[in-house]
Amino acid sequence: EPEVTQTPSHQVTQMGQEVILHCVPISNHLYFYWYRQILGQKVEFLVSFYNNEISEKSEIFDDQFSVERPDGSNFTLKIRSTKLEDSAMYFCASSPGIPGEQYFGPGTRLTVT
Amino acid sequence: DQQVKQNSPSLSVQEGRISILNCDYTNSMFDYFLWYKKYPAEGPTFLISISSIKDKNEDGRFTVFLNKSAKHLSLHIVPSQPGDSAVYFCAASAYYTGTASKLTFGTGTRLQVTL
Fold first, then answer.
1. What does the pLDDT look like over B4-50, one tens digit per residue?
2. What pLDDT was estimated at residue A85?
3. For residue B31, what is the domain's CATH number?
4. Residues of chain A found within 8 Å of residue B87, distances taken between Cβ atoms
5. Residue A100 has pLDDT above 80, yes or no
6. What is the CA radius of gyration of chain B?
7. Which pLDDT score is estimated for B85?
8. Which residue from A20, A37, A78, B110 puts its CA 20 to 30 A from B73's CA?
């Protein structure tokens, strides 16, 4: 069964450093998303991407964040200058366009020290 | 901003019995509702969804009920099995054709199915 994959599974970085989180969505899906979950809190929407552009972004997704789909398969989230409060699980998701149905990857645990 | 609420942080049910997980929402624009199951250190796994034009959707042991007037939905698992022990998230979406509609999640309910 096709699945969303994410790398790395765990990333440790120092405050102020740039990180890039990688995702390979399910092929033939058209809609892509990033969410995050801070420990003990709920899953929060960051950004959605459709037709090679950002569809919607949350207030969390400030100028330090960017997304790219550099080729036909990868979908990346970049954090330019990480802060301690960026420590969280970051989930990538993709959707074939069936309303509401999104399929999540296993997540990348980002630890900012 | 608590547009989707799960008021029970945990639930314990005996194997073979029914598990009922509840969810309330406040945003009238939501028209699709989903349940996800999550194990530690894994991503949420899609379980079942329901459109706002329906009041019930069933898939095997899982049934979701929607009460639009009360802005309430519930997930029934019958019979409950030990492998169902996980955190269950309710999520909602306002769907617009041609857009990547985001999901708004509740805080989750930890279900423990005991032997």
1. 999 999 999 999 999 999 999 999 999 999 999 999 888 999 999 99
2. 95
3. 2.60.40.10
4. none
5. no
6. 14
7. 97
8. A37
Spatial CA neighbour of B102 closest among B4, B7, B24: B4
Quickly count helices (H) and strands (E) in chain B: 0, 11
Cβ contacts of A100 on chain B, cutoff 8 Å = 32-34, 49, 91, 93, 95, 101, 103
Contact B6, B21 (CB under 8 A): yes
The CATH architecture of the domain made up of A5-112 is Sandwich (2.60)
Chain B, nearest residue to A57 by Cα: B102
> Where are the domains positioned within chain A?
5-112
Average pLDDT, integer, range A89-110: 91
Amino acid, res. A69: R
Residue of B nearest to A29 (CA): B100
CA dist A85 and A67 (Å) reads 19
Contact A91 B43 (CB under 8 A): yes
Per-residue model confidence (pLDDT) at position A72: 75
Per-window interface: A 51-110 vs B, CB < 8 A: 55-56, 58, 91, 93, 95, 99-107, 109
Instruction: Kindly determine whether residue B32 and residue A100, on different chains, have CB atoms separated by under 8 Å.
Output: yes
Kindly list the residues from chain B whose CB atom is less than 8 angstroms away from the CB atom of residue A111. none
Per-residue pLDDT, A62: 92
Contact B34 A101 (CB under 8 A): yes
Cα B64 from Cα B46, distance rounded (Å): 13
